[in-house]
Write a structure and sequence with these properties.
The chain is α+β, with helices and mostly antiparallel strands. The chain has one domain: 2-Layer Sandwich (HIT family, subunit A), CATH 3.30.428. 26% of the residues lie in helices and 22% in strands. The protein has six helices and 15 strands. It has helices at residues 122-139, 177-193, 197-208, 249-270, 307-312, 321-330, and strands at residues 3-6, 13-16, 54-57, 69-75, 90-92, 95-97, 103-108, 147-154, 166-172, 212-215, 219-222, 233-237, 275-280, 295-300, 315-317. A ten-stranded antiparallel sheet has the order 3-4-7-9-8-13-14-12-11-10, sandwiched between helices. The longest helix has 22 residues, at 249-270. The radius of gyration is 20 Å and the shape is globular. The chain starts with a strand and ends with a helix. The mean pLDDT is 92.
Length: 333
């Protein structure tokens, strides 16, 4: 029988339509035709991008914007927000507006145009995760900025406009609404129970095992109880940690290992599906919050939002998260 499930992190309701779809093969999709490389993000084309703000190279003496890098971060050539300028907050009648000040960067995950984060060696995925942390630490020094969202659009259906494997970072002068709502819900839960909501979620998922996908000494991956999308998977650290950028190198390696496992399972179970990956971390300036907990959300793009979803705010998920988690657990990585 279909169910309404409430997501405790945002207070939103999701409809789990249990009688619609149950198998990974029940999600057919059209593949976008690949154009192939090389492109401006490929090794040897460094002069075709804005100057890099971070790069990991095997040779420390190699000059900036040269070949030989493993991971490279550059400002987006067509940014949604620009780092230069002042806010100039102003009103226009009853409306408020300000200049689009912020930062928008591309994290190039591999020098290989045909690379895929799920297929990269473990050390290369560690480089990607560490570069995310290092860039957040640097952007946090800008007192104008209050939050950073790290995200990856894999596949054209998920919004990727560039084929070369990359993630993006967007730093904003205001806290994004979804993060602000998560922070609010987490604080309300903590005020009532004096425990972290996300820590309780981790404990329950480990106890019940129904929605567990993978685990390590530091990270737990599971299908959320009120999953919005088929095969939605979250990665949450076992130990309480509000801000991703405070994660030490040893724990980052563990995060990278579990992330790689989950992405490889999704790729094999669903034939390399398009997906969105989003890192939510505590807003800047809040200190070590006892109530909020950083986490990664991975949402494969296997269904489309239609009129009811857009008009009501409900998501309809035809794949119960318990079934999705079982499929992924049983899929080799």
């Amino acid at each position: 029988m279909p169910e309404f499930r409430k997501d405790p992190t945002l207070g939103r309701w999701v409809i789990i339509a249990t009688e619609r779809v149950r198998r990974p093969t029940d999600f057919p999709r059209r593949r976008a035709e690949r154009r192939g490389g090389p492109c401006a993000l490929c090794s040897g084309h460094e002069r075709e991008t804005p100057p890099e703000v971070l790069a990991y190279r095997d040779s420390p003496a190699a000059p900036a914007d040269s070949a030989g890098w493993r991971v490279r971060v550059v400002p987006n050539k067509f940014p949604a927000l620009r780092i230069e300028g002042d806010f100039e907050r102003r009103g226009q009648g009853l409306y408020d507006l300000m200049n689009g000040v912020g930062a928008h960067e591309l994290l190039v995950e591999s020098p290989d145009h045909d690379g895929n984060l799920a297929a990269l060696p473990a050390g290369a995925v560690e480089d990607v995760v560490r570069a995310c942390r290092d860039r957040i630490i640097d952007l946090k020094r800008d007192e104008r900025l209050r939050s950073v969202i790290v995200f990856k659009n894999h596949g054209a259906e998920a919004g990727a406009s560039l084929e070369h494997p990359h993630s993006q970072l967007i730093a904003t002068p205001v806290v994004p609404l979804v993060v602000a709502e998560e922070v609010h819900q987490a604080r309300a839960y903590y005020d009532y129970r004096e425990r972290c909501l996300f820590c309780d979620m981790v404990r329950q998922e480990l106890d019940e095992q129904y929605r567990l996908v993978a685990e390590s000494t530091e990270v737990v991956a599971f299908a959320p109880f009120a999953a919005r999308f088929p095969f939605e998977t979250w990665l949450v650290p076992r130990r309480h940690a509000a801000a991703f950028e405070q994660t030490d190198v040893a724990r980052l390696c563990d995060v990278a290992a579990v992330l790689r496992i989950v992405l490889r399972k999704l790729a094999r179970a669903l034939d390399d599906p398009p997906y969105n990956l989003i890192l939510h971390s505590a807003p800047f300036g809040g200190g070590e919050s006892p109530s909020y907990h950083w986490h990664i959300e991975i949402t494969p793009k296997l269904t489309n939002l239609a009129g009811f979803e857009l008009g009501s705010g409900f998501h309809i998920n035809p794949m119960p998260p318990e079934d999705a988690a079982r499929v992924l657990r049983d899929t080799p990585d």
